[in-house]
Amino acid sequence: MRALYAALLTAAFILAGTQAGLAAATLQNGEMTYESGGKKTVFTSDDVAVQTIKGSDLVFLTLDEDPAKRIGKKPTLFVFDASGALAAETSAIPDVDIEQISALSLSPKGGVLAVDNGTWVVRSWSFVSYPALAPVGKPVAYLTGEDLPDLIWVNDDAVLVTVINENSGRKCADYDPCGPRSVVLHRISTGKTTPVLAGTDICDYGMSGFDGKSVTAIKTCGKTAKDWATADSKEKGLTQSKESAPLPDKF
User: Fold this and answer.
1) pLDDT at position 231, please?
2) Which residues are CB-contacts of 206 (< 8 A; sequence separation ≥ 6)?
3) Residues in CB range of 187: below 8 A, 6 or more apart
4) 237 touches 230 (CB < 8 A)
5) CA dihedral (59, 107, 4, 24) positive or negative
6) Closest among 129, 124, 70, 134 to 101, alpha carbons compared
7) In this predicted structure, what is the pLDDT of residue 169?
8) How far apart are CA 228 and CA 179, in angstroms?
9) What per-residue confidence (pLDDT) applies to 5?
10) Cα–Cα distance, 151 to 54 (Å, whole number)
11) pLDDT < 50 regions, the chain
C-alpha cells in the first residue's frame, strides 16, 4: 500500500509540474529527456549511465557537473521507476559527492536507500529515505568485497558490511589497504556497529551471505601474523575456508 501511495503521489507531482510549466524528467531506452519551460534537453548514453537499484525494479543515474549545467543544475541524482517516470531526484545528500555515487540499494520494505559513495576500495554507505531522499541515520565506512557482497540488508534499520582496521599494526606484503577485515552489523538509526565475525592479526573475514539468521563469510588465514608480511599476495601463502556466525541477540 505504501509503495502504491508513493507511486500515485509521484505521478501526481510530475503531472502537476508539467501542467504548470515546471521541470519534468523521463527515461526511455537509456536516454533521459528533461523538460523545463517548454525546452527539452536529451541526455544520451554518452552523458549518463543508467544503473539498476539493487533489490528493486528502479533505476538511477547521476548528472555530473558539465551535463548538469545544460539544465541549470548542480550534479544531480535521478531515480526512475520501471516505466521510466521520475520517482525522485536530489542535488544534495550530506557527506555524499553526487558525482561519486556508484550504487544504490533499496531496503527490504522499500523505505530506505543505501547510497554507495567513494572512488577507492574503502568507501561509505550513506542512507536516505525513499522516495523523499532525506538523510536518515548514520553512514558506515566499508571495504569493497571484490566478488563478495558490499552490503546485505538485515531489515530497514540494519545492514551487514565488511570493514578493515588499518591501524592494527599488521604488516602486509604487496597489497593495500592492509589490516584485519571483519564482518559487522551496522544499525542505521544509531550508528552502532557490532562485530559479527571479527578479524585478527592472523585471520580476515569477508562477508559472503546471510540466510536471515546467520552470516556466512570467507575466512582467510595465515599460520602466524608474519605470513601476511611474507605472502606474495592475498592468494599465496594464506588459506581460505568458510565460516558462519549468528547475528547478535540484541543490536
Assistant:
1) 62
2) 145, 146, 148, 162, 181, 183, 217, 218, 220
3) 137, 157, 158, 193, 194, 251
4) yes
5) negative
6) 124
7) 64
8) 9
9) 45
10) 10
11) 2-22
* CA gap 123, 11 in Å, rounded: 34
CB 228 within 8 A of CB 172: yes
- Please report the pLDDT score of residue 6 as a whole number: 47
Residue whose entry in the numeric block shows the C-alpha cell 558490499 = 150
User: How far apart are the C-alpha atoms of 105 and 113, rounded to whole Å?
Assistant: 6
Grid coordinates of 81: 521507476
Per DSSP, the three-state class of 131 is: coil
- Grid cell for residue 45: 548514453
Tens of pLDDT, residue by residue over 13-32, are 444 333 334 469 999 999 99
Measured CA to CA, the distance from residue 225 to residue 170 in angstroms comes to: 7
Q: What is the dihedral of CA 32, 54, 158, 161, to 10 degrees?
A: -110
Q: Please tell me whether residue 163 adopts helix, strand or coil conformation.
A: strand
Model's pTM, two decimal places? 0.85
pLDDT of residue 242: 96
